[in-house]
């Protein structure tokens, strides 16, 4: 090619549009383009609200973690079950999740002037869009929902997608089904350890077996409450978490010594409220879970005696502890306690008691082994061995150190006959975003195109179509 | 930098579900139909909120950008079109001028003009300035358009806080940049993208570049990644301090971590520092423009947290200085700014003009012979001058110990002579004078008293909090420690002296873990077993044996040991597999490594810019206009904290362009070719976004 010859005009004719996959969870909302291997946008489902200059302002996204604001309080549009409660705000939060990083915040036609200002070329037809463009006018949308989402909520979801966002095509898929797709299985028993819930979902040939869906509230937030209970009962003194935003500087202290930090004070009318502090404390607790907390590996429970007669607790005591430093500089080594805080996921009696906790003490039926048992009891006997051979573990809280190993032991003890095989993605992001990734795969399949509910179909049949089409 | 990229890309693509099949056969054909790109035919554009850097061709050794365009355009007469300079419409029925109002000192333009090359390229018509209007005054009833290069009145800034707010204007700017550099056809384009740009924005830009510039290849590179290329590192935390915002990005193995990324954090950029100065000095009559120049001068410094401000002792010494006495202001009719000695007053301290003269050696004298003698003479004169003028003790005092110092303010002053009013256009003269500032100059990052709706502890604390959040959000926990230890601080906002040190100080105060807790007191050495290389994978861990969950790295015993064991390929840990099942997924190992980590940060430091590109070092000193002028009371030449350059992004862009366009010719999918574009459309740009 001669650099002095002008190239021919562009001949791009296709209109390949990637679908957007939106996976709204209780603690985070994930959004990204189908076909990519991780959601591009990850925002907290929590949003902040405060008043400034006499106006109510709302903060979305990570900013809530970084910038304290006067009188800031934090809310979650979902209830503890992972079902939407505040539809207006859920819509806003979800909208933010794809507008901030994917579709852009400003609707409108950017092509009107810049591209065509040489006057020789007519604007391409397909770029002509009306100016009151809604956020998703040109992207199909695949959304996820928990297996126990009520019909009302499903209809409301498609209503928002079609009417508020104007998406040309929509589909609603269950998180469990998608997580099994993400691990390459059409049939699986999906154990999802989320923030607000743990759930067990049996999937057969890509279809959810509704009667087998089980969930309980012993998720990441419950583990946090257990850790808080542990801190309260800590000796020699109870530990209080002071989040970073309240500390201006800290000084190194010896382990177990009282913290020496300079604290920040906000005037009473400006201080962020307790819900904000709780959210920020949760950040520290999440770090604690990553660095310290460990699941007793089994094969027997922490409270039981081990194979050689020594109680497991005594065994655990001999393991070196793990240090953790709190934002105010207080640091301590955590020994056997770091096993205790998660033991109640498997053994309800082992829960750390805390009468002030917002979580009632767990019942045996809420533990993971019992959920699996109940779930399998709800499905056909012939399917059970196949499901047990395809146990898929997903969800952020399943990243607890040693979790899958313990789960494996528990399942093998409970079901000695059939072959139990637990699969868990090794990669942190694949584990956390299992259902999003499944959605990404599904929506980019060529064969999936016939599954979409088109705008026309929606207009013809109304929101109830979601019940018929997304089973 | 090159080979590593390759491996990452290929491994990443394997997992991408998107069908990549159609692209593969093109690779060879691209090589055959398209001649390789040449160094001199590569167009680099790095748009910023304030300044857009551009360059055509890669020089032998990489230099700072050849062209600097202010990121702004002016609305043209026809709606929707834009001009690069302000156009004044003049009607000449009356002879009264409707000339420009007071032009603000336009630092951007000065920069642009200072660039020797640009002057040559500038279209002839555009050099016409206000002075030339005198001929046109004779014609009556005629509308005359003239371009006013000095004015920024009515300018539209298409990028605000990194975000493109006015697309037509942004595209007009790109076109202006493109036309100014006028590359030959078949010039590949590399654009440095702001982190805040959404996927849709990027598609739009790709479409524009391919359809308007007809580029044969286009690469859209993230600015944070470009900074990593500039520093020659694959993993770093990039802090980009811009005009109105700060971006904090964790890059691991040449991949940008989108989750938890601090994007366009507002109220933390250079403007926030100026705002603080205005707040501190406003009541003393300082205008915003003065504060802006003060910020750019080198008497301004951010002291590390806990450093006492220079106090009474320094004042006493300073008091003996004639400059301090003189600095209460000479008669100055046009400006009521305080503390400034009048025009032409010599202000003493080291703001002596011989600092400037030092730089201007008489080259002729050197060339004509006796170089050493000449230089020695100059040196001698200098020292004698200094001795004569200033108390040597005070002179040697570093800036941070002085209570007061002055800087040279450059402003435009309107000439109100009779002859000026007669001729029509008003005339301005550049007017410099020295202004003395007290300790306020150390306080520009202190929290503002009116924080608006942010409860901020000062911009450094906000940035530190964002860094903490960003690094904590990196999923691969083993990388976090490295990320804390490889901070890259770029962007013009970071040019303020002491910025980096102060930021590191704040991080240390707030986040660094005490060694006592994590290393020395916590562990009993006897329980600390040797790491098992592959232990526990194939057998169920029996009681008491340090099994899978027992990796020493988890205890934060000793960072070195942690680092060593983390590189151990055969980590224990076997989620899910039946005991006895051989063959462990390496991913699983990596997962187990990542949970069994210890808390971070135990230390933090910045990376050093590689020294192969001396030009990028210099840039740091010469770019601040205030710094090159009267450097009162500062250690000479130390306007930069000495750790590299705020424009490493552009250096990285050049390196990346060299690698992608020239060295590997598209093998690493560093750019999108025209063929790809024609086949898959703009949305395919995401496959190539770096």
From TrEMBL, chain A:
GO terms for cellular component: nucleus. GO terms for biological process: chromatin organization; DNA repair. It holds the Pfam family Actin. Keywords: Activator, Chromatin regulator, DNA damage, DNA repair, Nucleus, Transcription, Transcription regulation. Gene3D superfamilies: 3.30.420.40, Actin, Chain A, domain 4 (3.90.640.10). It is found in: Nucleus. Residues 119-131 have a biased composition (Acidic residues). Component of the NuA4 histone acetyltransferase complex, of the INO80 chromatin remodeling complex, and of the SWR1 chromatin remodeling complex. Belongs to the actin family. ARP4 subfamily. Chromatin interaction component of the NuA4 histone acetyltransferase complex which is involved in transcriptional activation of selected genes principally by acetylation of nucleosomal histone H4 and H2A. The NuA4 complex is also involved in DNA repair. Is required for NuA4 complex integrity. Component of the SWR1 complex which mediates the ATP-dependent exchange of histone H2A for the H2A variant HZT1 leading to transcriptional regulation of selected genes by chromatin remodeling. Component of the INO80 complex which remodels chromatin by shifting nucleosomes and is involved in DNA repair. This is Actin-related protein 4. It comes from Penicillium salamii.
From TrEMBL, chain B:
SMART domains: ACTIN. Belongs to the actin family. Pfam families: Actin. Residues 1-39, 92-137, 310-360, 613-645 are annotated as: Disordered. PANTHER family: ACTIN (PTHR11937). This is Chromatin remodeling complex subunit. Residues 21-32 have a biased composition (Polar residues). Residues 620-639 have a biased composition (Low complexity). It comes from Penicillium salamii.
């Amino acid at each position: 090619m001669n650099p002095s010859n002008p190239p021919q005009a562009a001949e791009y004719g296709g209109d390949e549009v990637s679908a957007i996959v939106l996976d709204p969870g209780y603690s985070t909302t994930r959004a990204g383009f189908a076909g990519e291997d991780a959601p591009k946008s990850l925002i907290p489902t929590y949003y902040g609200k405060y008043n400034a200059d006499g106006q109510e302002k709302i903060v979305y996204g990570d900013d809530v973690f970084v910038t304290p604001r006067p009188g800031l309080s934090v809310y979650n549009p979902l209830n503890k079950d992972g079902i939407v409660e505040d539809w207006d705000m859920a819509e806003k939060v979800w909208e933010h999740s794809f507008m901030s990083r994917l579709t852009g915040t400003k609707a409108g036609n950017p092509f009107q002037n810049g591209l065509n200002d040489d006057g020789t070329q007519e604007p391409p037809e397909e770029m002509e869009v009306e100016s009151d463009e809604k956020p998703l006018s040109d992207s199909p949308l695949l959304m996820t929902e928990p297996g126990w989402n009520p019909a009302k909520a499903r209809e409301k979801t498609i209503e928002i997608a079609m009417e508020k966002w104007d998406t040309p095509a929509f589909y609603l898929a269950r998180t469990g089904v998608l997580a099994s797709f993400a691990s390459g299985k059409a049939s699986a028993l999906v154990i999802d350890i989320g923030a607000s819930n743990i759930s067990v979902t049996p999937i057969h040939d890509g279809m959810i077996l509704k009667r087998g869906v089980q969930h309980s509230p012993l998720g990441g937030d419950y583990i946090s409450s257990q850790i808080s209970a542990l801190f309260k009962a800590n000796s020699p003194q109870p530990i209080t978490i002071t989040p970073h935003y309240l500390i201006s500087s800290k000084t190194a202290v010896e382990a177990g010594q009282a913290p020496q930090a300079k604290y920040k004070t906000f005037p009473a009318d400006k201080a962020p409220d307790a819900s904000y502090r709780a959210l920020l404390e949760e950040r520290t607790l999440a770090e604690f879970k990553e660095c310290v907390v460990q699941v007793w590996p089994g094969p027997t429970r922490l409270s039981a005696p081990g194979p050689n007669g020594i109680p497991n607790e005594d065994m655990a005591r001999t393991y070196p502890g793990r240090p953790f430093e709190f934002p105010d500089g207080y640091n301590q080594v955590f020994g056997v306690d770091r096993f205790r805080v998660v033991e109640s996921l498997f053994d309800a009696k082992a829960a750390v008691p805390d009468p002030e906790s917002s979580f009632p003490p767990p019942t045996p039926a809420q533990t993971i082994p019992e959920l699996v048992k109940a779930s399998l009891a709800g499905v056909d006997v012939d399917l059970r061995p196949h499901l047990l051979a395809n146990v898929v573990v997903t969800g952020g809280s399943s990243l607890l150190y040693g979790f899958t190993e313990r789960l494996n032991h528990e399942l093998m003890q409970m079901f000695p006959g059939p072959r139990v095989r637990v699969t868990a993605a090794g990669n942190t992001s694949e584990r956390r975003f299992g259902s999003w990734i499944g959605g990404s795969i599904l929506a980019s399949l060529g064969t999936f195109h016939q599954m979409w509910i088109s705008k026309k179909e929606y207009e013809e049949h109304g929101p109830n179509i979601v019940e018929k089409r997304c089973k | 930098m090159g080979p590593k990229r390759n491996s990452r890309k290929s491994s990443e693509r394997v997992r991408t579900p998107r069908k990549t099949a159609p692209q593969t056969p093109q690779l060879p054909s691209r090589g055959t139909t398209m001649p390789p790109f040449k160094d001199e035919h590569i167009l680099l554009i790095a748009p910023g909120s304030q300044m857009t850097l551009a360059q055509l061709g890669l020089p032998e050794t990489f230099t700072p950008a050849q062209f600097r365009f202010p990121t702004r355009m002016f609305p043209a007469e026809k709606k929707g079109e834009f001009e690069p300079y302000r156009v004044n419409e003049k009607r000449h029925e009356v002879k009264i001028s409707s000339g420009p109002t007071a032009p603000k000192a336009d630092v951007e333009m000065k920069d642009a003009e200072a660039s020797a090359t640009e002057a040559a390229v500038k279209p002839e018509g555009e050099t016409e300035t206000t002075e030339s209007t005198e001929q046109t005054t004779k014609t009556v009833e005629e509308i005359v358009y003239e371009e006013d290069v000095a004015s920024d009145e009515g300018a539209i800034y298409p990028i605000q806080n990194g975000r493109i707010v006015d697309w037509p204007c942004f595209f007009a700017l790109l076109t202006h940049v493109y036309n100014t550099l006028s590359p030959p056809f078949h010039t590949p384009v590399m654009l440095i993208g702001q982190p805040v740009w959404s996927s849709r924005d990027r598609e739009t830009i790709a479409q524009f570049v391919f359809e308007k510039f007809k580029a044969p290849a286009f690469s859209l590179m993230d600015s944070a990644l470009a900074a990593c290329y500039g520093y020659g590192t694959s993993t770093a935390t990039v802090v980009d301090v811009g005009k109105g915002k700060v971006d904090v990005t964790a890059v691991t193995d040449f991949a940008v971590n989108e989750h938890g990324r601090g994007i366009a954090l507002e109220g933390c950029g250079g403007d926030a520092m100026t705002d603080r100065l205005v707040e501190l000095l406003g009541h003393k009559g300082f205008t915003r423009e003065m504060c802006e120049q003060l910020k750019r001068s080198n008497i301004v410094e951010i002291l590390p947290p806990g450093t006492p401000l220079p106090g009474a002792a320094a004042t006493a010494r300073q008091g003996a200085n004639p400059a301090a006495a003189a600095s209460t202001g000479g008669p100055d009719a046009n400006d009521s700014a305080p503390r400034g000695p009048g025009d032409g007053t010599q202000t003493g301290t080291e703001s002596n003009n011989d600092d400037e003269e030092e730089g201007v050696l008489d080259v002729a004298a050197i060339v004509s012979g006796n170089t050493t003698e000449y230089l020695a003479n100059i040196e001698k004169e200098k020292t004698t001058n200094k001795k004569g003028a200033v108390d040597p003790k005070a002179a040697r005092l570093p800036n941070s110990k002085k209570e007061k110092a002055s800087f040279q303010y450059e402003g435009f002053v309107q000439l109100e002579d009779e002859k000026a009013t007669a001729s029509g256009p008003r005339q301005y003269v550049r007017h410099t004078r020295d202004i003395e500032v007290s300790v306020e100059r150390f306080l520009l990052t202190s929290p503002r008293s009116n924080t608006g709706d942010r409860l901020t502890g000062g911009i450094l604390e906000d940035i530190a909090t964002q860094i903490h959040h960003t690094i904590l959000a990196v999923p691969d926990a083993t990388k976090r420690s490295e990320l804390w230890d490889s901070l890259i601080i770029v962007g013009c906002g970071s040019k303020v002296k002491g910025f980096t040190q102060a930021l590191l100080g704040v991080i240390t105060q707030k986040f660094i873990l005490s060694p006592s807790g994590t290393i020395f007191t916590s562990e009993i050495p006897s329980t600390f077993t040797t790491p098992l290389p592959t232990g526990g994978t194939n057998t169920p861990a029996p009681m008491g044996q340090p099994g899978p969950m027992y990796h020493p790295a988890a205890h934060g015993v000793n960072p070195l040991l942690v680092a060593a064991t983390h590189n151990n390929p055969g980590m224990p840990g076997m989620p899910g597999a039946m005991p006895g099942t051989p063959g462990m997924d390496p991913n699983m190992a990596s997962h187990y490594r990542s949970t069994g980590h210890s808390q971070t940060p135990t230390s933090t430091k910045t990376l050093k810019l590689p020294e192969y590109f001396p030009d990028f070092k210099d840039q740091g000193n010469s770019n601040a206009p205030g710094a090159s002028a009267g450097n009162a009371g500062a250690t000479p030449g130390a306007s930069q904290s000495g750790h590299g350059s705020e424009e490493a992004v552009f250096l990285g862009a050049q390196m990346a362009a060299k690698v992608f366009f020239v060295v590997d010719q598209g093998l690493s999918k560093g750019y999108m070719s025209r063929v790809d574009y024609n086949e898959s459309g703009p949305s395919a740009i995401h496959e190539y976004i770096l």
